Amino acid sequence: MRPRDIASYTFLAFAWGLSFVLLLHVVAAFGWIGAVTFRSLIAGGLLFGVARLTRRRLAFHAGWLPLAVVGATTVAGQLIGLSYATPRIGTAMAAIFVAAIPLFSMIIAQIWGLERITPVRTLGLALGTIGIIMLVGFPAVPVTSAFLIGCLAMIGSTFSAAFGSNYASRHLAGTGPWEVTIGSFIAGGIIAFPLLWFVPVPTTPQPIDYLYLVALATLMSALTYVLYFGLVKSIGATAAISVEFAVTVVAVLVGALILDEPLTPLQLLGGGVIILGCGLVLGILRLPKAAC
Q1: 134 CB-near residues (< 8 Å, 6+ apart)
Q2: Which of 218, 250, 216, 163 is nearest to 48 (CA)?
Q3: pLDDT at 31 over 50
Q4: pLDDT band at residue 117 using 50, 70 and 90 as cut-offs
Q5: What is the structure's pLDDT at 209?
Q6: pLDDT at residue 285, rounded to an integer
Q7: Are 131 and 274 in contact (CB under 8 A)?
Q8: Where are the domains of the chain?
Q9: Stretch 268-281: mean pLDDT, rounded?
């Protein structure tokens, strides 16, 4: 990767890892649908406004449909699952689920013919599946229906993120990261907005809650997704999405050290197995040739 890509990669790891703390505050104040809707519309609207003020030329020649698909998956689908699940299963555990995104990305890329599966990658997929089972099967909290639904929501969230990234790599390769981010966030916000009828804002937010929301939308959505879609265009979807490994490490440390969230040794081991599996899938880790 170029130095610019490394800088973007590092910033994404810390910004998204720390975003879980803000996410909990925003979800508590605005609800899990409100958090996604307002976060998305603010992020997309802000970037559009900045582009107009700086006279940045925007070219949405790809049309509305690809942007709507990315908005429905990478934005609405991923963030709805994440916002619903995190308060129910904890920041650290949600973050470990996030590490499974590259596994789904590789499967989708294989189905679409974007990448070739190998025995090593098959082993990585198997290890990732085992890690997820360890993560869900041996929690430090009681296994309630809310906990299980939260886990399912996180699986849906991770799949949505992987699908949207591969779709963007395939159908929006000629579209700039600003256009992809603006279009997908506005589309994601519009898609999530009607769900406020079923999941309304639970309380009257306080001024500090609006500050958290704006910070989440600007620093950890608008800016980060411009960088992320730039990485997808520069180094490819699967390589870019491997940043979730680093995000997981940061978020688990935040959950354990700042939020005092419990994790069992088997869950931590499961997270390690997931990361090992993803490392094999992405080619970051390699087996000795004799073992292949």
Answers
A1: 266, 267, 269, 270, 273
A2: 218
A3: yes
A4: low
A5: 95
A6: 65
A7: yes
A8: 3-291
A9: 72
Spatial CB neighbours of 27, under 8 Å, sequence gap ≥ 6:
35, 83, 86, 87
Place of tokens 């992809």: 180
pLDDT at 170: 85
Residue 70: per-residue pLDDT: 94
Q: How far apart are the two ends of the chain, measured CA to CA in Å? A: 27
Q: What number is the average pLDDT over the span 141-170?
A: 87
- Crossing angle (nearest 10°) for helices 78-89 and 3-53: 110
Q: Please report the DSSP string for the chain in residue order.
A: --HHHHHHHHHHHHHHHHHHHHHHHHHHHHHHHHHHHHHHHHHHHHHHHHHHHTT-----TT-HHHHHHHIIIIIIIHHHHHHHHHHHH-HHHHHHHHTTHHHHHHHHHHHTTSS---HHHHHHHHHHHHHHHHHHHS-SS---HHHHHHHHHHHHHHHHHHHHHHHHHHH-TTS-HHHHHHHHHHHHHHHHGGGGGTS---S---HHHHHHHHHHHIIIIIHHHHHHHHHHHHH-HHHHHTHHHHHHHHHHHHHHHTS-----HHHHHHHHHHHHHHHHHHTSS---GGG-
Q: For residue range 82-98, list pLDDT tens digits in order.
A: 999 999 888 878 887 88
**Position 292 pLDDT exceeds 50:** no
Tell me the percentage of the chain whose pLDDT exceeds 70: 87
Query: What is the rounded CA–CA span in Å between residue 117 and residue 282?
Result: 11
